[in-house]
Every structure is written in structure tokens, then in C-alpha cells.
Specification:
The protein has one domain. It is of the alpha+beta class. The chain is globular.
Length: 190
């Protein structure tokens, strides 16, 4: 990079990327200090400060014995905002990374992948695993078209919210900004 490269005019692509980055920084759901902080400290909890619990066993986030660490239940939306799934348009061949929606459920929920999102919440219940400190919450993850993509497990008794995502999902900060469908939807809604 040369000393005066900043004087070169930006390409339309560079301008578009900068526009998307600015919008992304405005619409992301940010983690906050959990209102549960004192309760987490006083209860059995994951104090590892790692993206995955070192005691976890099985597939990250997809197995109750390896739940996703989240710093308090009030930060679950901030974690879920990080999740994207890959979508390839059959018509245009364009690839986007779509945001998910989620609904709390229970461990025994066996609704199949691809089933429609219900109108309202059914039974919601936490669960436990012998190797994990704290209650584990269960969530169904849905596509933009409200089809079930996965059932995931979250331990909101953690002092850190993970930046790791379960297999089959993509982290919003690791995908091309121009392919983030959440940003594209925000632009189209203006």
C-alpha cells in the first residue's frame, strides 16, 4: 500500500462494502452485561471463559452434553444474531447467508427438520447434563421461511458468550458482508 493510496477513488464495489459494513454495525444485536450476572456467580456455572465448555462431550451446540455457552439468558438474542445458514438460489445461483429465528422448546421435542414453525410456543423446559454446570435451555432454529433447521442446546449459566457456531451454521462475522441476507433485508426495507 502506498503513502497516497487513500487519495485514489473508491470502486463501486468498495463503496458498497463500506455501506454494508456501516449498516451491519447498526443492526447487530450486541451482548450486554447480563441481568443474571449475580445469579450466575452464585449458582453452578461455566467459568472457563472459553467458546466451548472444556467439559463438553458430543457435537457443539447440537448435543445437550456440549451446549453453547451464553452469558445469561438475556444474551441469547445476541448469540442467535450471530447465526447464519447458507442458501443457494436455484433460479439465480446466488449464495446468501440467511439469519435464523428461534423458539424455546424442550429436550423431548422431536419435531422433524423441515417442519413448520408453530404459531406459538409449546412446552418450554430446561434440562441438565452430568458434565455441565447450570441449566441447559433448548431452542429450535428456523429458516427465513419458518422451516426447522436444528434443535440446539444453550447453557446460559456461563460468564462468556461463545463466538463458535454449531456445524451447519456460519458466523455472521465470517461471511462476505455483501452476502449477509440480514443486511440485504434491512436495505430493502428502507
Amino acid at each position: 500500500m502506498g503513502l497516497f493510496d487513500f487519495l485514489k477513488p473508491k470502486s463501486p464495489e468498495q463503496k458498497r462494502i463500506e455501506q454494508f459494513e456501516r449498516l451491519k454495525s447498526k443492526i447487530i444485536v450486541r451482548e450486554t452485561k447480563s441481568l443474571m450476572h449475580d445469579m450466575i456467580i452464585l449458582a453452578p456455572h461455566d467459568s472457563s471463559g472459553m467458546d466451548a465448555n472444556p467439559k463438553g462431550i458430543g457435537e457443539f451446540g447440537l448435543d445437550k452434553c456440549n451446549p453453547i455457552p451464553v452469558y445469561g439468558i438475556d444474551n441469547v438474542p445476541a448469540y442467535m444474531d450471530k447465526l447464519r445458514y447458507k442458501y443457494e438460489s436455484e433460479k439465480s445461483g446466488v449464495t446468501t447467508y440467511n439469519p435464523i429465528s428461534f423458539m424455546r422448546t424442550h429436550e423431548g421435542d422431536e419435531t422433524p427438520i423441515g417442519s413448520s414453525k408453530p404459531e406459538s410456543c409449546g412446552i418450554e423446559a430446561g434440562t441438565n447434563a452430568p458434565n455441565i454446570e447450570g441449566t441447559i435451555d433448548v431452542y429450535n432454529i428456523y429458516s427465513v421461511g419458518n422451516k426447522k433447521l436444528a434443535k440446539i442446546f444453550v447453557n446460559s449459566y456461563s460468564l462468556k458468550t461463545s463466538d463458535k457456531v454449531p456445524d451447519g451454521f456460519f458466523h455472521r462475522d465470517l461471511i462476505p458482508v455483501l452476502q449477509d441476507a440480514r443486511i440485504l433485508m434491512a436495505i430493502m426495507s428502507k
